[in-house]
Amino acid sequence: MRPSSRRHSGGTATAKGWATGAPGAEDILRRGAWYPVIEDAGDELVIEVDAHPRRVARGKLIVRAERPEQWSIVVRTGVMRPTLAGQKIANKYAVCPDCTARQEFEGRPDTLMCARCRRAAKVDWSTTY
């Protein structure tokens, strides 16, 4: 069940697809977050980032037609050092498919409930960022 809440990562009515940063590309976008594609400009796509258009080379993106419905998992590596989460060190977090909030978790859950938008969704364990 999806509560009625505003999506913070862009609307779906005008989206021509959804994009996230490709593995190995420099971190130009938040890893694990999907952004609406608002224009196809050949070698570049224009995506909406924080309510502003941004041109990004197509080769630095993974693109899909539909908005993801599952949480993305991001593993902190390299410059993304683990952070303190209470008494533990957190080396991974999940990204909400609806509002793109980052959320720490324990174990390997099948579903998560977003603390910000209150949406529950399955977790995509097949790909990590």
Quickly list its features:
2 domains, globular, 129 residues, 5-stranded mixed sheet, mainly beta, 5-stranded antiparallel sheet
SS-derived structural category? mainly beta
Q: Count up the helices.
A: 0
| Beginning-to-end CA distance, first to last residue | 27 Å
Q: Provide the residue-averaged pLDDT.
A: 84
Q: How many strands in all?
A: 12
* Helical percentage: under 10%
Main sheet summary: 5 strands, antiparallel
Strand content: 35-45%
What is the succession of H and E elements? EEEEEEEEEEEE
Measured on Cα atoms, how large is the radius of gyration? 15 Å
State the shape. Answer: globular
Strand order, largest beta sheet = 4-3-2-1-5
Question: In short, what is this structure?
Answer:
The protein has no helices and 12 strands. It is mostly beta strands and about 130 residues long.
What does this structure look like?
The protein has strands spanning 18-21, 35-41, 44-49, 52-57, 61-64, 71-75, 83-85, 88-90, 92-95, 102-103, 111-113, 120-128. It is mostly beta strands and 129 residues long. It folds into 2 domains: 18-64; 71-128, no CATH class. The strands form 3 sheets. Strands 4-3-2-1-5 form a 5-stranded antiparallel β-sheet, with no helix packed on it. It has a 5-stranded mixed β-sheet with strand order 10-9-6-12-11, with no helix packed on it. Strands 7-8 form a two-stranded antiparallel ribbon. The two termini are 27 Å apart.
